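Protein data sheet
==================
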Amino acid sequence: MNRIKYIDILKGIGIILIVYAHAHGAGGYNFLVLSVMLFFIISGYLHNSEIEFKKFVKKKFFRLYLPFVCCNLFLPILTLIKRFGLGLEIKDNIIYIVKIMLLLAKDGFLFGATWFIGNLFIISLFIKFLEGCCKVKEKYLFIGLIMILITIVAEILDIGSFARKIIIGGFFYYIGVLLNKYKTKLLAIINPKIIYTLSFLILLYFWYKLPEINYQNNTVPELLILLITSLAFYCFMVFVSKLMDNKVKIIGDILSYIGKNSLHVLIWHFVFFEIVTLFIMQLNHIPIILIEQYPHVISESILSKLIYFSSGLFGSLILAALYTTVYKYIKILCQNIKSYKNC
């Protein structure tokens, strides 16, 4: 699939806001909630309905499941080896590792933000499965009814926060699928300028209501507020992204580059946060062995927040550039070896 530049810009804005929110920036909770939902909508918008199920699963396995598992198993496996070497009980460690492999747990210390990748893997496969099962003409309407039914049942049964996050994420992913499927019809009915203006006004109106919402433990009214505000945020950010693409090329190119590497930033920014935390602990003569007992951001000064944000974003982008370079050379090397064998 060819890349859509304004979508890359949109992802760039979204991931910047997520790092900003995690660095405890002002209004961070609002930006975090809206940006997470933004990424679910974007993921649904880019959902490939044409590819067959087996190829889809294989693609998502390598792009989502493996990064999630590899990152989240790093520390638990080290802990398991350490405890085993010391002759300590390891049953709970093994259970924890199995849960990570089943996408039921995560490493909250270094890679806490990767819960999104694990949930996205589950959601994308579920929507693809429903697409294959639904043989009716208006199958996306039918899938929508299933999603609403699941949400209602989840509310009645009062399921845990883990399942709620998957269901809510799935709902926004499905909205993204719908926006892609019916965008031409929607734009034929409603003028884009009216959509962007209304979305901005809605966003302003509901902005102060968002801190009252816990999207992991929603009631139906809260879910409706989240739905309306997130859609408004998506529409307004699409307007901003297209404006950057058409009018402010330099900024658009920068945001597009960040968007292309948004997965790397999502995975690694907490790691760089912890590096900053180590320095702050050293300066304050706090034993670094206690680092796991502290939150990701331990200083609330404006300068510290700026350092956290900058290191999380730019450190991750540098790693992404290194990864891309190494991957390119490995690919060239493999091609040369293959050509040599064929000679």
